[in-house]
Amino acid sequence: MRRRAILAAAVALTIGGAAPRIAVAASAPPDNPTGSPTGNAGALVGSAPPGSVTSPPRADDASARPPQIGVASRVPTAIRLRRLAIAADVTELGMDDSGEWQLPDAGVGWYWFTATPGTPGNAVMVGHFDTWWGGQGPLARLHEARPGDRIDLDLVTHAPDPDADGAAADGHVETIGYAVATSKLVDRTDVSSMEATDDERLTLVTCAGWWSFTLNDYTMRRVVTATRPS
User: Fold this and answer.
1) pLDDT at 2 over 50
2) What is the pTM of this model?
């Protein structure tokens, strides 16, 4: 079956007392470049267990990202898995003004409300498997990842006050490494891989399985987890 759209894991969260519900967003041609659901593409298809996924602030809220005042903050800017010739820029993602988790227009996206790479917790990133015109997305070969493969992340440190004690100069670049631990297929509604963890973990998610015209979505997700070498 011909794969005809870019897809990655997007989550629409029901705000209020109910548990978050999951929606899969299909990326679209240039007249809808953000990949936000249109028509039935954003149909709710499942529910996450209570507490498994938090409800981050929306991206249009000026207070969405906590201010980094007088402290250094690190953000990922590039990712590489050399054995598979995967190399992509990394951008920050949040939630859009409709309450859905954003998808990257290109490259790989990191949800800033998950863990910062290089710190304890689960840093979640998503990337497209293919393009709406039939080309390969940045994570097209993610299914070939195997335990032990090295993943490199470039991080840039931003410090509002470069002269503050203990703060790195603004724009300082460093590279940290991860080793692939697991690779698995999960159902398109399964968000357990996005749960918080105590270890330093990187989780990469892209689409897999077959394109379903009924679902207007791919049937599965490829989830690769990687941990910091001990």
Assistant:
1) no
2) 0.70
